Description:
The structure holds 2 protein chains of 2 kinds.
Chain A: E1 25-36, E2 39-50, E3 54-58, H1 65-73, E4 80-85, E5 88-89, E6 100-103, H2 115-119, H3 130-143, H4 159-171, E7 177-181, H5 189-206, E8 209-214, H6 217-223, E9 226-231, E10 234-239, H7 241-246, H8 251-256, E11 261-264, E12 266-270, E13 274-279, E14 283-288, E15 292-293, E16 303-306, E17 311-314, E18 323-334, E19 338-345, E20 357-363, E21 376-381, E22 387-389
Parallel strand pairs in A: 3-8, 3-9, 6-7, 7-8, 15-22
Antiparallel strand pairs in A: 1-2, 1-4, 4-5, 9-10, 11-16, 12-13, 13-14, 16-22, 17-21, 18-19, 18-21, 19-20
Helix pairs in contact in A: 3-4
Chain B: H1 2-37, E1 41-42, E2 47-48, H2 54-61, H3 63-97, H4 103-111, H5 118-129, H6 134-142, H7 156-180, H8 184-192, H9 197-225, H10 229-233, H11 242-252, H12 256-285
Antiparallel strand pairs in B: 1-2
Amino acid sequence: xxxxxxIPQGRSGTPPRPSLADRRPMIECRGxxxxxxxxxxxxGIDLTIREGEFFSLLGPxxxxxxxxxxxxxxxEDIGSGVVLVDGKDMANVPAxxxxxxxxxxxxxxxxxxxxxxxxxxGLRRDPRSRAEKAAAVEEALEMVGxxxxxxxxxxxxxxxxxxxxxxxxxxxxxxxxxxxxxxxSALDRKMxxxxxxxxxxxxRQVGITFVLVTHDQEEALVMSDRIAxxxxxxxxxxxxxxxxxxxxxxxxxxxxxxxxxxMPARILGETAxxxxxxxxxxxxxxxxxxxxxxxxxxxxxxxxxxxxxAATLLAANAEATGRVNGxxxxxxxxxxxxxxxxxxxxxxxxxxxxxHEVRISMRNVFGREVPDVGTRVRVxxxxxxLVLFR
Amino acid sequence: MAAGNSTxxxxxxxxxxxxxxxxxxxxxxxxLTILAFSFFKDGYLTIVREFTVENYVATWTDPIFRTILxxxxxxxxxxxxxxxxxxxxxxxxxxxxxxxxxxAMWIFLITIPFWTSYLIRVFLWKVILGYNGxxxxxxxxxxxxxxxxxxxxxxxxxxxxxxxxxxxxxxILPIYVALxxxxxxxxxxxxxxxxxxxxxxxxxxxxxAMPGVVAAVLIVFIPTIGDYVTPTVIGGGxxxxxxxxxxxxxxxxxxxxxxxAIAISSMAVVAALSxxxxxxxxxxxxxxx
Lengths: 390, 289
């Protein structure tokens, strides 16, 4: 994962919008269960998505995120539980009368219609005049950057253009919620990054609640106000991007989002403020209580985790700021703007006889030499950036 | 490069030579013979090899030909209408309701009637509809009727019924293929954009199935207009269609030039109608790049 570009976002520092917690709930799921035959696809989903929020459902394929989205859209009946959209129970409300619209993964552009006919598809029963509807279509096309494309045949469009048509077709109906099912997965990387920014801007502009389904953790981090990470039909963690990245609730979430180093740990003691652990290669560490997460069934035992950028390699003559431990560079992976160093910490084999590598990322600075494999280095880190999984 | 191409072309030609020869001898040559005959003079039991357009003049000024041609078009049109209208629900059921692992079995069942000869199937309709047929004897034994019903057989209705049954699979299969090709997400999109199931069918499913419908129309219409067996057996010779008229001219009256002219004229009419269908098809196909 390369570092995301600096994209204006309202989540950190000074929020440009009123706090999410003050807004009214737009989607509420309470104990939603869904079975496909014997397969338990959704295992008790509880979540609240607020008005105007950019919300992401993130998880590996088969985790139930698309099923949940289709449940909100009205394409799946649920076994039990309640789905409310804008306070109204959606049980027995068919998809065509729900105040939601969807951008399908395949875009589902009608091949027998022109671009304008596609965008205006949902306006049939709109009481406005033909000319007003045509103006609305043109306005919607302009909003997605396709002004003047109305007369084109839908099948002659590129992937990115199809996606814009799908967006315009949904947004023209001014839904309360826009559901996006992996809308960027079919685009190439450059197009995807561009569309991410455009989608964020568009969401700000229209103020509609967006619910995005994605398996791409970077995409979720870049775009969302909040993210629900799902595994096996359950929500493993629901948090803002920063909290999700810095303090994953479980080792599995940590592993799914970004790169995280794991080291075996032994718990030595515990107070209300922190847990004291011994970590081979790092010594005795006091982990703040808010950085204590749970282990998943099947984990080898307690472990600590930290992100590659949470530690730095010190230059030979530099002053240490935090804790410092020694190690040897085992591998160097050069990415241009940054370099990954795999470092074997001194004494990291103390518990299980296996030397553990940690991956440390450093932003490259012109003029500074990239140390070679085999170089002895000092690693600087701070206990506050460690997460304990127990 | 050129040598390689010519070798490849030569190989291809050798490969298709037997069926090509077969097609030339059994399709092109007879057709050209008929075309040539239609411009010859009839010399009663012989053919006078002199060019004339008299046969065509006779054909197109003959009120019987026009009546019979119109009847053939009418019957074929009715058959096409019934067959396609009845086949569409079957194809729809096959595509949207039948579980995908059962579809092969269903298609197999639909094509089973083809294992029986066309002639025998037509005759079986006579057994069902006839004076002492299945329906009449059944109704009589139940006591619903005293005398056998006579309107069951030997009329346009029975011809349409028989032909519709015979050509049903030809209509079901192309419509089924067109329906199978429709991305199911399009139907969900139609619902998502506020349309009921019925309106989604009307605005999405039906337009996208049109290439299959047009193909079905062509496949049913063209052969039924020239059908010979059913008017003879089921129509009892009382309701001749164009093929019966051509047969009468060619064999009974032995006026081969006039028979040929009627055949070529009918072909021209069918070809013209087919062009209209093809043009329609292209309009619908335009969208399926």
